[in-house]
Amino acid sequence: MRKPISQAQLKRLQTLLTKANLREEKEEIISHYTNGRSTSSRQLTSQEATDCCDWLQGIADQYQEEDPCNQMRKKMLYYGYMMGYDEPTNDRQSGLPAKQINYINVDDWCKKWGIHKQPLNKLTRQQLHQTVSQFLQVYKSTMKAVGK
After folding, report:
1. 3-state class percentages of the chain: helix first, strand second, coil last, to nearest 5
2. Is 39 exposed, middle or buried (0-12, 13-18, 19+ CB in 10 A)?
3. How many Å is the maximal CA-CA distance in the chain?
4. pLDDT of residue 40
5. Sign (positive/negative) of CA torsion 105, 46, 20, 34?
6. What is the pLDDT of residue 128?
């Protein structure tokens, strides 16, 4: 039998969701890490909690709260992650950490398909707002297509 999530892991998970500003997406994130088995963090196994916390720590560490645009960038990275952008798309991405692959793929999307055709970190606040709205529509369409 799999070891259930510990109280310490549960507390860390909640803290990281807040630090990464992803509390609103908690159920979707938990569902992803349990392969759709549950949306409750209390139903995570210890290993699932560890994997989820490691990913959230990467998101929380990647950006500092001083920049008001970082929240929008985190949303883009979250949506990318949920759509599988953390999977390598070419040989140069093989062996890279998933969060780095996710960033590269979201950045590439911004440059190729984004309304402003600019790298993610070069978008102004107004441009980010427009690009996040555009990417959200892609995310919703993708989730609808896969039945989530």
Report:
1. 65, 0, 30
2. middle
3. 50
4. 95
5. positive
6. 96
Instruction: Determine the Cα–Cα distance for residues 29 and 21; give it in Å rounded to an integer.
Output: 12
18: its two tokens: 């807040």
CA atoms within 13 A on the CB side of 130: 12
- Name the residue with tokens 């707002």: 129
pLDDT of residue 64: 52
User: Which residues of the chain fall short of a pLDDT of 70?
Assistant: 1, 63-66, 148
- Residue 108 CB contacts under 8 Å (≥ 6 apart), including other chains: none
The number of beta carbons lying within 10 Å of the beta carbon of residue 86 is: 22
Q: What is the pTM of this model?
A: 0.58
Cα separation, 118 vs 73, in Å, equals 13
Structure tokens at 91: 């040989």
What distances in angstroms separate CA 110 from CA 116, 120, 132, 133, one per listed residue? 8, 6, 10, 12
Query: Does the CA dihedral 95-138-110-39 come out positive or negative?
Result: negative
Count other C-beta atoms under 10 Å from residue 144's C-beta.
9
Question: Looking at this protein, which amino acid is placed at residue 38?
Answer: S
